[in-house]
Amino acid sequence: MAVPPDLAAALIAENFSRDAGGVLRVGGLSVIDLTKEFGTPLFVYDAGTMRRTYRALCAAVTGFAEVDFSVKANPNPAVIRVFHEEGAGAEIASGAEFDAARAAGVPPERILFAGPGKGAADLDRVIAGGIGEIHLENREEMVRVAAAAERHGATVRVALRINPGAAAQGGAMRMGGKPSPFGFDEEAMDAAIDAVEAQAALRLVGLHLFAGTQGLKAETLLGQWAYGLGLAARIARRTGRPLETIDLGGGLGIPYFSGDAALDLGALRAGLPDLIATLRADPGLASARVVLEPGRYLAGPAGLYVARVLAVKESRGSRFVITDGGMHHHLGASGNLGQVVKRDFPLAAVVDGGAAARAATAVVGPLCTPLDMLARAAPLPPLAEGDLVAVLQSGAYGLTASPTGFLSHPLPAEVLVEDGRATAIRHRG
Ligand SMILES: *Cc1c(COP(=O)(O)O)cnc(C)c1O
């Protein structure tokens, strides 16, 4: 795909629209009208875009893998429900996320529990609730899961999360050989398998590999998945039983910055026959369910974060637009959620007829810290007090990945648009 000259405009054309007056619309509804009804700041999600994205990914990996939803990307039960209606199970990382997935209608056997620090109370909660599978990340946790299983008189299905070794650094894979708090090191895999096999209350059924987030290259993902199949085959050989699940993690990326090219689903599809052949050829793998569990890829493109301009200020030759929205709701857009280099998320004026001249504009939030910046140099038309701006790619790692308590502003509403109707799925604080 060609590099889009203005990523925000390209994303609006792909997932949203503008009417004749240049007003941004979500699922056919005017963003101005949505802010009149629900106030600002505001998260808006388009269920139609979520469904289209889910179906396109499933179609690309059909015959190879099923697609679950990683709840931490957006744990609102109404969002989980959209993906579940499309066929997704849920990957969760806490007892509260288990409850959110259950509230969304996901049956417990379609839920898997990952995360490096699962405590006894959360384990009791999910085992009592009949969870499908728990991913083991370290020795203490394995013992804790076994003890919880015994307390409930249950046999719990578990998978081993493996942190790949140096051999996984080759080619396009870009993973492996590094120290990590997640999972068992590949070098210790056989010992970990034997330790799980010695626990009567645990049944080792699968492998879990999650190599890293925001992968935009098909060849990188294919290399990681192929490596995962090799690890899975080793587990099946050592236990002497066929594997039931091979969880290859999430990590499919979306374009955030100008110059990012979207993941090429066609290239992903083209690489799958080799992996499918590997699965079929190995009796230890042939009957396994292969699972992908993306969060960002599924939920990100469907969301907007809308904020209202409070002031426009020139300071020594730079233009600052001060809004009511900021890093307290959207840490990622401020560049403070793990980004090494701070670059601007795609951001647009809600009303933009395209005629006005654009100028590089800093968009800042209301917090008393220079970190609270939604864009450093967004190409925006002139704006005034009362106007609206929208951050694109805001459906994943938005509100619940942000320091919402910092400066004690109220929580924004979250709104889901579907079939021409807008529903508050979280009310304003
Ligand atoms: C965070 C996480 C995911 C989702 O990651 P994305 O990059 O959003 O796809 C999937 N699996 C596990 C275990 C995770 O921790």
Automatic annotation (TrEMBL):
Domain Orn/DAP/Arg decarboxylase 2 C-terminal residues, every copy: 43-395
Membership in a protein family: Belongs to the Orn/Lys/Arg decarboxylase class-II family.
SUPFAM superfamilies from the UniProt entry: Alanine racemase C-terminal domain-like, PLP-binding barrel
Cofactor: pyridoxal 5'-phosphate
Coiled coil: none
Record carries keyword Lyase: yes
Protein name: Type III PLP-dependent enzyme
Domain Orn/DAP/Arg decarboxylase 2 N-terminal span(s) in chain numbering: 58-299
PROSITE patterns according to UniProt: ODR_DC_2_2
Regions that span the bilayer: none
Keyword entries, A-Z: Decarboxylase, Lyase, Pyridoxal phosphate
Species in which this protein is naturally found: Methylorubrum rhodesianum
